[in-house]
Design a protein that fits this description.
It is a single chain. With 103 residues, the protein is α+β, with helices and mostly antiparallel strands. It has one domain. The chain has a six-stranded antiparallel beta sheet, with helices on one face. The radius of gyration is 13 Å and the shape is globular. It starts with a strand and ends with a strand. It comes from Vitreoscilla massiliensis. This is Lipoprotein.
């Protein structure tokens, strides 16, 4: 996986842009999604602590026409454990580029 942009702060949201290998929008528990979440959290480790793991990853919704997947998980860091929601959306499907936003 080649990482183009690790994160962009927008309000309280974090965004990542990545190229993924495979056929279709990455699943909530995919390696690509977890790698981006790890990068995003570790870039903000002074606030959030280091990424440890994601537990109980679930797909909350998938809108095929909007090409948007909504997910929930329990985020474990060295400082805390909390429930998070995140979205995965195509930026350019032909180039296999997608956004991952932690809400």
């Amino acid at each position: 996986m080649k990482l183009f942009l690790k994160y962009l702060p927008i309000g309280l949201s974090l965004l990542g842009l990545s190229a993924c290998m495979g056929d279709g929008l990455p699943k909530c528990g995919s390696d690509e999604a977890e790698e981006l979440i790890t990068e995003i959290i570790n870039e903000r480790r002074y606030q959030l602590g280091n990424f440890v793991e994601l537990r109980s990853v679930e797909e909350v919704g998938h809108n095929k026409s909007a090409e948007l997947r909504t997910c929930s998980a329990e985020l474990i860091t060295t400082k805390s454990s909390e429930s998070i929601y995140y979205s995965i959306k195509w930026v350019n499907q032909n180039k296999e580029e997608f956004w991952l936003e932690i809400n």
